[in-house]
Every structure is written in structure tokens, then in C-alpha cells.
């Protein structure tokens, strides 16, 4: 039985080719993808292509585009066995994280991939990324999808989407999940680490929840920073605060008063770490105790991309009855370590 995969092309380097008159990279007609990569026809799956009308650079991808993708997957969920999204690399981790929260109780693979070099380049990584992603997007055993989550495939590695971060703008091996194991690797064999895969509640039904609020601010602290700037910004409902190490910040009276005032103004403060690996541990050092006192939320070992999109999805979402602070610490799609992220 041939599996059916819907390929959604949003834009990015993978869909570019060089215009030899200008020397610039321009999008090519993605309906000709089978001519560019005839090997696609050799894979045991049927591929339907749905390109964005106007291909977008990944820096132009945001909440509106996330909603379009999520709802298009929802609309076609019953007609396809898997979904492959071709995306620019710079914001792929944001899109993968957002989709993981918007696609509830997912039981089919949603794979995102892209490339560092255009598909027409002699040394391109696009072909391998695209072809192997199709394999993962159509991988079934005993009539059940092996991958039942949003994942990123890049340079021989399958990674949990909401755990990824782009750490290289230069190398083909551009993505990491520092706080979670690799889900699979492609070599001579196509391997999957089944013990690390996410599984939804077996009694739940797939649905799309495309709620996204943009009333979220991200701020990275640094030595010598003037916290007075916080009092000058417009009121925001959620502040994702990226702090030092396992959760420390300047131990001053001004820090305490500034953060307390933010909380009095109704701002939820989510604390995440500037470290690539590891996470937040309130109370480990005395300079983290301020966050416990003001009722800040620990992001544990969540990535910045996942923290931002999770906050955007949960904030003022009418489909949840629990308070934001209780929802955020839950491990909803495998984005943090532990049952409730603690």
C-alpha cells in the first residue's frame, strides 16, 4: 500500500535556484519539483505538492503562516498519511514548535525540513533532506504511523520539533536538540529510536487549535543591564525572561522592585536559561530566589523558540480552563523534561 504524503512548500533556500543573469537566488516553480528531483518518484509513496502562492523567506514566517499551515493540515488530515513542510532554516524551530502546540493529539507525521544550499547547487544538501524526510513522513508499521509528532529532519538526523534550535548558519549540520535525544538517524538504514518518540493520549481525537496571541515579549538580560527599561515598555501579558545559568539574576533591591512591579501589573514572567544545555532550577543559587518570591514560572529546559510559541498559544486561549501559570509548566508535547516539566 502506497502512503500519501502532502508536501507543503512555504519558501526558503531549498526552493531557490540561481538566476544566472543577475547572480541572485530566486524561487523556482515548485510544481516542477519532480523534474528537479526525479528520485522522488522512486520512493514508495504518493506525493502531492501544495506551494504557497508567494514563497516566503523564513524571516517573514509568523503567526499568520503558522495558522495557514495548521489549518491546511487539519483540512487534509484524513486524506493523507503524512505531511512534509519545506521551510527556510532561520525560523524553522519557531514554526515547528508552534505547530506542535496547534496540532493537538497528532497521530501522523508532520516533518519540517529545508537546506543550507539551493536545490540546484552542485553541493546542495536539499536532495538528501527532502528525500529522507519523505521516507519519515510515510513511515508506517502495522498500519500505524511510526512518527506521531512534529519533527525536524536535517543532515541525517530526525529531531523533535519543539526541542530544536538552529546553532549554525554555515554547516549542513545546522540543528540540535541539546536537552533531548535524537529521534532517528539515516545511514545505510533508516533508524528510529522508538523509546524517545512522543505519543498522544490514545483516547483523544486530533484537532487543530490555531489560537495565537502576540502579547508576548522576549528579553535577554546581560551584565550591567538597566532594568529601568522594563518600566518603560508597554504593558505586556507574558514576559519570557532569559537569565543566567540555572536561573540567576542581579541580586539588588532595584531588581526585586522592578520584577515585583511587573507582576503587580499583571505580567506573567516565564524564566528560561541562556545556556544551550540544561535548564532552570529555582533555589539552587540564592540569586534565583527572587523568582520564587514573585511567582515567576520556571521554563525548566525549554528552548527560547518553544517557550515563546508555547506562551503565544496558551495566553488567553479559550480552549483551556486552567490558569496560564499552571498550563505552562505542563509537558504538553514533549517540549520539556518530566511529566509536568519539573
UniProtKB/TrEMBL annotation:
InterPro entries: Asp/glu_Ase-like_sf, Asparaginase/glutaminase-like, Asparaginase/glutaminase_AS1, Asparaginase/glutaminase_AS2, Asparaginase_C, L-asparaginase_C, L-asparaginase_I, L-asparaginase_N
Active site as annotated: 13, 89
Domain L-asparaginase N-terminal: 4-194
A Pfam family of this chain: Asparaginase_C
Residue intervals of the Asparaginase/glutaminase C-terminal domain: 216-328
TM region(s), chain numbering: none
Family: Belongs to the asparaginase 1 family.
Protein's name according to its UniProt entry: Asparaginase
UniProt source species: Chryseobacterium suipulveris
Amino acid at each position: 500500500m502506497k502512503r500519501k504524503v502532502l508536501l507543503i512548500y512555504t519558501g526558503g533556500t531549498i526552493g531557490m535556484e540561481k538566476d544566472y543573469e543577475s547572480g541572485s537566488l530566486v524561487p523556482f516553480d515548485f510544481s516542477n519539483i519532480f523534474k528537479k528531483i526525479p528520485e522522488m518518484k522512486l520512493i514508495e509513496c504518493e506525493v502531492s505538492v501544495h506551494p504557497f502562492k508567494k514563497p516566503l523567506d523564513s524571516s517573514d514566517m509568523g503567526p499568520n503562516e503558522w495558522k495557514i499551515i495548521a489549518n491546511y493540515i487539519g483540512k487534509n488530515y484524513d486524506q493523507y498519511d503524512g505531511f512534509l513542510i519545506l521551510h527556510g532554516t532561520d525560523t524553522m524551530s519557531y514554526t515547528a514548535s508552534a505547530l506542535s502546540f496547534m496540532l493537538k493529539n497528532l497521530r501522523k507525521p508532520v516533518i519540517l525540513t529545508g537546506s543550507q544550499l539551493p536545490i540546484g547547487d552542485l553541493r546542495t544538501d536539499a536532495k538528501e533532506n527532502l528525500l529522507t524526510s519523505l521516507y519519515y513522513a510515510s513511515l508506517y508499521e502495522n498500519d500505524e504511523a511510526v512518527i506521531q509528532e512534529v519533527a525536524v529532519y536535517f543532515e541525517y538526523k530526525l529531531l523533535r520539533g519543539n526541542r530544536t534550535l538552529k546553532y549554525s548558519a554555515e554547516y549542513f549540520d545546522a540543528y540540535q536538540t541539546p536537552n533531548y535525544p535524537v529521534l532517528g538517524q539515516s545511514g545505510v538504514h533508516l533508524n528510529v529510536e522508538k523509546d524517545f518518540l512522543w505519543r498522544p493520549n490514545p483516547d483523544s481525537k486530533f484537532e487543530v487549535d490555531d489560537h495565537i496571541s502576540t502579547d508576548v515579549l522576549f528579553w535577554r538580560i546581560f551584565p550591567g543591564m538597566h532594568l529601568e527599561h522594563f518600566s518603560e515598555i508597554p504593558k505586556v501579558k507574558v514576559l519570557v525572561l532569559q537569565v543566567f545559568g540555572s536561573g540567576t539574576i542581579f541580586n539588588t533591591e532595584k531588581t526585586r522592585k522592578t520584577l515585583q512591579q511587573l507582576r503587580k501589573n499583571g505580567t506573567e514572567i516565564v524564566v528560561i536559561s541562556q545556556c544551550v544545555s540544561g535548564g532552570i532550577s529555582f533555589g539552587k543559587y540564592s540569586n534565583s530566589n527572587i523568582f520564587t518570591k514573585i511567582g515567576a514560572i520556571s521554563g525548566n529546559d525549554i528552548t527560547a523558540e518553544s517557550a515563546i510559541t508555547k506562551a503565544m498559544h496558551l495566553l488567553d486561549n479559550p480552549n483551556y480552563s486552567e490558569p496560564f501559570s499552571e498550563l505552562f509548566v505542563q509537558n504538553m508535547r514533549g517540549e520539556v523534561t518530566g511529566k509536568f516539566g519539573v
